[in-house]
Amino acid sequence: MKEQLRLIITTMRLKQWIKNIFVFAALVFDRQLFFLNPFLITALAALLFCLVSSLGYLINDLADINSDQKHPKKQHRPLASGNLSKSSAIIAIFILALIVFPASFALAFEFGLILSCYFFLMLAYSMLLKRIPLMDVMIIATGFVLRVAAGVVIINIDMFSPWLFVATTFLALFIALGKRRAELALLQAGAQEHREVLQGYTKEFLDQLLTIVMSATLMTYCLYTFSSPISPENHGMMLTIPFVIYGLFRYLYLLRIKQIGGAPEEVLLSDRHMQLTIGLWSLTVIIILYFL
To answer: Using N-to-C axis directions, what is the helix angle for 86-107 and 2-11, rounded to 10°?
Structure first.
């Protein structure tokens, strides 16, 4: 029983919970980070997104057992390896669903709707949309935008720049396209056997898309820094642009030169350059928005 519980937690992919930090975007950029009540509400909303994400991972791994067994890394996942029984995974899915959805609607009706939309979108992704080239990365990007939207509706927002939604979309597309390129590089000739959608991509095509999306990410973030209604009048947020440039370049370097990036959350947790860049960017944002 304890071993099955440990394997369920492994399948829930706690490392990927880092993606749900996007729920905090509205709190930070609306200058409410240091107010206790909005912070606690946002933290609870982020936790619910973490749980619904894990719910999606459990369902996804159940649906992908056969293909994961052919993947050099994914074959070691609990369900693909056979160490975690299907019945245990199904029980965990029902328990998580009974916790997540009632709690989300109790927190705020609008938040419950967004979280439910996210879940059903991810369900459609697992069952069908992840097999359609371009649609798969668009769905991943939409998931990040829904995280930001959830953070907006959960607290009283004075003014939230629409440019942040656009920048989030392009950043998520950049990461998703990078993930696909890294998978192509890793799997090479047998790529389509491991992930069907990869037959619709080539490295050259993905490199072109990465260039376009990286440029769009930088441009929209720059537009945010000097057009946001809550930014300082001296446009101090523009000081954060160099960190964004370096972060994008660093991720592209890791993809093209180091041939890594198939698991973006692992890159963020292991690459010191990315950690330092994100840390300095975060510190600069806090100082500019809250103390200048």
So the answer is: 60
Q: What is the CATH number of domain 1-157?
A: 1.10.357.140
pLDDT single digits (tens) 231-265? 667 678 899 999 999 999 999 998 888 877 667 77
Higher per-residue pLDDT: 157 or 122: 122
The DSSP string of 136-162 is HHHHHHHHHHHHHHHHHHHS--S---H
pLDDT digits (tens, 9 = 90+) for 137-184: 999 999 999 999 999 999 877 667 888 899 999 999 999 999 888 888
Residues ≥6 apart with Cβ < 8 Å to 116: 101, 104
Burial of 182 (0-12, 13-18, 19+ CB in 10 A): buried
The helix/strand/coil state of 27 is helix
Q: 244 vs 196, which has greater pLDDT? A: 244
From CA 191, how far away is CA 71, in angstroms rounded?
9
Question: What are the Cα distances from residue 99, in Å, to 9, 20, 94?
Answer: 16, 18, 9
Q: Given CA atoms 22, 28, 34, 40 in this order, what sign does their dihedral have?
A: negative
Helix (H, G, I), strand (E, B) or coil at 110: helix
d(CA 135, CA 67): 20
| Residue 160 contacts residue 24 (beta carbons within 8 Å) | no
Take residue 151 and report the two structure tokens written for it: 């953070």
In this structure, are residues 41 and 60 in contact, taking their beta carbons and an 8 Å threshold? no
**Are the CB atoms for 177 and 203 separated by under 8 Å?**
no
Domain segments of the chain as ranges: 1-157, 161-292
Whether this prediction's pTM lies above 0.90 is answered by no
